Amino acid sequence: MPAVRRIAGPGIATALMLVILLGLGTWQVQRLAWKRGILAQISVAEQAPAVPLAGDPPPFTKLAVTGELLPDRAAMYGSEVRDTPTGPQLGAQLIEPLMRDKGDPVLVELGWVPSNRPAPLQARPGEITVQGYARPAEKPGWFTPADDPVTRRFYAPDPAAIGASMGLPHVAPFLLVAIDPQPPVPGRFPQPATTLPRPPNNHLEYAITWYGLALILLVIFIVWSRKALQPPESASGVTAT
Q1: Inside any domain, residue 51
Q2: What's the CA gap between 180 and 131, in Å, rounded?
């Protein structure tokens, strides 16, 4: 019994740690299924033709939306460094509202622009048709930098918040990510996406890591407890007379 009491405390701690590690591994497995579903939606959307906007489209639907852009209400989203003819430049995604004859305005993510632009942005006067993908709204996370509605600088793709900063109380509940499959022309901005960005999918590696740590912890505890339960004579190799 004294030997059993010696391993009781470490055994309880080990059990608690195992529950945490296994829970984290299972959570990553669930995230893996969720991420694979998103990637499958993106693959299907890329192969499908663009369709006119009607109602709230499913995420990553390829759309063709007609209207007039309002560059004087533009906002910036995100932060990204890209190579330009003048060297690496910090920039962000340019978002402008597309005003439609019918329906709420659609916020269009036109593409990346450098913070210090050597040339004016490409003009899009009059009514145009933008083809792209519906990107679902996302709320800021714990580690998302704070938005600045006054300067229309945002770090989370939240159409409601971005639209409010533009003086538009009602906008479509998604962003339209403009897509141009042609390579970007150096020095011409904004530079639209050529494909729909795919989120990283590292959940399988994370799950293996958490489950592996749980297995290692269990093996260490079994080896240690076997030694702890041995009689002192056996542990030291001395035979009692």
Answers
A1: no
A2: 8
